[in-house]
Specification:
18 strands, D-amino Acid Aminotransferase, Chain A, domain 1, homodimer, Dna Ligase, domain 1, 3 domains, 5-stranded parallel β-sheet, Rossmann fold, 9-stranded antiparallel β-sheet, 14 helices, alpha+beta
């Protein structure tokens, strides 16, 4: 598939106005990274006081509103998104006459765990064993093939919910199915992982690629708590890049792509993709030569990609539900503070801090001082 | 002078809205640095499409309009400025009931070459010999004391013009006086300098100070062309910091202060001060741990100051009159691009690029590739 046929004509390298579907913190940080490049930003978001609205214009509307999506498309040169749950059908034929990047196919695949797992398999990227489940008999058959424990998940993210249930014994089959039932499901092998890592790659429309050092992530309650980069397992860098490169090549990708992996017995097992800038890449703002946000924009505008090297060792800690006072964070040597300008709410990502140090040892020592840091 | 008496009551460390008099590129870069700290920005500028207007609200008006200044003050928690020519008299009593930083006294001193030179002398900071000149007889007397060559300058900047004339012989006295006459003047010793350097210091309201490595600046036609930091003359760092510290202490300063120096026979001779972030500090965005813009905000909000260490060797090149295409600049390893979002006009600063390299040798090699770079 050549670039010439793939992208609508009229797309220029010097596009000045970027439309972003979603004005969350990712969109806000994209805009902050893009102003120095001379870009302007318009967002589509249902909330007029979303974080992006403080740094760009917001067209108020739902991501599923085809008319609003059309309005955004008409106002800009290039479209991108900061959310994964943009309904592909609502986009209609927008991507045929306006640059919409990363490509719709990557967006659609990231929305369906089955498509994602099939893609991993097709591209020979290791992934947990999986079976589709549409009924209780199918679940019973699937668990026989996969074994206990296993994880039953809804296939689609976003609007359909992010539900998942761990199934450890036959007694839990029925309750898990009923809790998630009524929508297409997938049963996945449970991976007893040693750690979770992510790779962030970027590709421009001309096919140039670059990869950040892989990062180690700590989740709890389904929310990313902290990221440390580069990950100590240096030997995972090459396979992670190879897997990300395969996915990007497959989609003739442009922009940032994230793949999250489990690490088991020192090997990568792909869990999911995100066709966008990612929370596990926030450390790149101060911790890498070029941030993931700037590189995403360079990628979709077909500019030369920026250096993805780390400037030392970085840690990113999410502030969830409440923000510590800036003075507390900024008093820590090497700390940077990010307030997304949101109203506090339990479980909501309100901001983050990044620590950058010369050595990993210094980093771990400083990390202990940071409010909200998880003890490791 | 204690901080308690100096600053109006009601000033809080967690102020959320910053008013900036002037919405030029400096104001724009202040806002871009301030959003991650959770701040919001309102500008006062006569031009509704000034660079800052793309990243914050603009109150349209002249800096000399007391009513508009009052409107800005009423809308924000803390006032600062990105221009030196805010008429102090137009501010009226605003600084008595609203935080206005850096202090008005520093602003006023920076606007008058005589006050500035007297301050240098008072604080025992080496500065060129100078005499005030109000008439032709005074000029004749002054040149006898200072000798040829000497530079005749208008005392006040901004609205009164930035005119200056080099006087190399008695025959030039009359024409120089007539060209600049009618306003208060100052005659200064001409310094045959080896190089020009600047120090950028920052102080918070609690008195904490920090200093960036001094930078070497190249001017032509009165406009800064490029900056290289850190400067090779490491032994100048200590005296530069000492001089900046004296000025900041004198004013019970908060925010960023710049002092430009000539270097003659390896010694610093202070030329002028700027009570604000400075073009010669743009390299700190990517070339230092914390940028001058973020540190200015930390200073005026009385937050702990950020690390001012350089991340290697940096060069900043101004784009004057025209911008090179971003792709040309971004293809250079270590290059970052800044487009201020201005309409092109001859002699106008439209943007800059920063190069960051591990060694000075690499930096100078990369610098040669950059469009607009002056050959050194």
């Amino acid at each position: 598939m050549s670039t010439a046929t793939r992208y609508p004509t009229g797309a220029t390298q010097t596009a000045q106005k970027i439309g972003i579907v979603g004005a969350g913190q990712l969109g806000r940080m994209l805009a902050l990274a893009g102003y120095p490049l001379g870009l302007k930003f318009v967002f589509l978001d249902k909330s007029a006081d979303a974080p992006g609205g403080q740094v760009g214009a917001i067209i108020p509307g739902e991501f599923s509103d085809a008319q609003k999506l059309g309005e955004l498309a008409a106002a800009v040169d290039v479209l991108t998104y900061d959310v994964e749950n943009v309904p592909v059908e609502a986009l209609g034929d927008i991507p045929r006459h306006k640059l919409f990047l990363p490509p719709v196919a990557a967006l659609a695949t990231g929305q369906d765990r089955l498509a994602e797992k099939n893609l991993f398999r097709e591209l020979r990227i290791p992934t947990p064993k999986f079976r589709t489940v549409g009924s209780m008999p199918e679940l019973e058959q699937a668990i026989q093939e996969i074994g206990y424990p296993a994880v039953l998940k809804t296939r689609r993210l976003g609007y359909d919910g992010r539900g998942q249930r761990l199934i450890s014994s036959p007694a839990e089959l029925g309750s898990a199915f009923n809790a998630l039932g009524g929508v297409p499901l997938i049963l996945e092998e449970f991976i007893a992982f040693e750690r979770e890592v992510s790779v962030i790659g970027v590709r421009n429309r001309s096919g140039e690629t670059a990869f950040y050092p892989i990062a180690e992530n700590l989740h709890s309650d389904g929310i990313l708590r902290h990221t440390i980069a580069p990950c100590v397992d240096k030997q995972l860098q090459k396979p992670a890049e190879s897997y990300a490169r395969r996915v990007m090549h497959h989609f003739d990708y442009a922009g940032v792509l994230t793949i999250e992996f489990f690490v088991r017995q020192g090997r990568l097992i792909a869990n999911e993709t995100a066709p966008r800038v990612h929370n596990s890449g926030h450390w790149t703002i101060e911790g890498a030569v070029t941030s993931q946000f700037e590189n995403h924009l360079r990628g979709i505008l077909d500019l030369p990609l920026g250096d993805t090297s780390a400037l030392g060792y970085a840690a990113m800690v999410n502030f969830i539900g409440e923000l510590p006072p800036p003075a507390t964070v900024l008093a820590i040597a090497g700390a940077h503070y990010h307030d997304y300008g949101k109203q506090p709410r339990p479980g909501r990502k309100l901001g983050h801090a990044t620590l950058v140090c010369k050595t990993r040892k210094q980093l771990l020592a400083q990390l202990r001082k940071l409010p909200g840091a998880v003890r490791t």
